[in-house]
Amino acid sequence: MASFSLQKLCKFSFFSLVFVSMVTAATAFQFKVGGDKGWTKPTGNESETYNEWASRNRFHVGDSLYFEYNNDSVLVVDHTSYTNCNVADPIFKLKDGKRVFVFDRYGFFYFISGKRGHCLAGQKLIVRVMVHPAAAIGSPQPAPSPMEDDDGDGWDSFWGPLPHNSTIKQTVASYFMTALGGVLVMMYLLM
Question: Fewest CB within 10 angstroms: 34, 80, 96, 180, which?
């Protein structure tokens, strides 16, 4: 009888440990752009630019940016529009004051203010989303530098075709959790 209770305790401890490690491995982070001030036009008195802030952080697939703003918008643009502060043809527009943008792939993302003049004042942001080497299928190509000149092809020149919501790459943690879940089910059934 004592060995039966010990066996149950071991199973419970093992499954609890695995569950906690799976939840921790799959954690995505939400970053608030601009801190307490939010997404605002720089005044020149800020301690750091949006790009300096982004360079201090590490972004991964599944992480998100939280934009909070008034009388403005956030435009997701290509490298050329970012460089020229062109608000005319965004890839995607975030409006309504409080929005979350989720990174569904690795590479560079370019954000500018939708209000004319704000981008030229420094209200723009480049985010590089990193990928674990094991997550890429085949040989991953390095992402281009955000400072390189674009060949004029815009989005397609370094990101490939426009993404569709149904084709989100899975992370290593997702594959690991699926495999581990299958192993746990098999172990439970065999014990």
Answer: 96
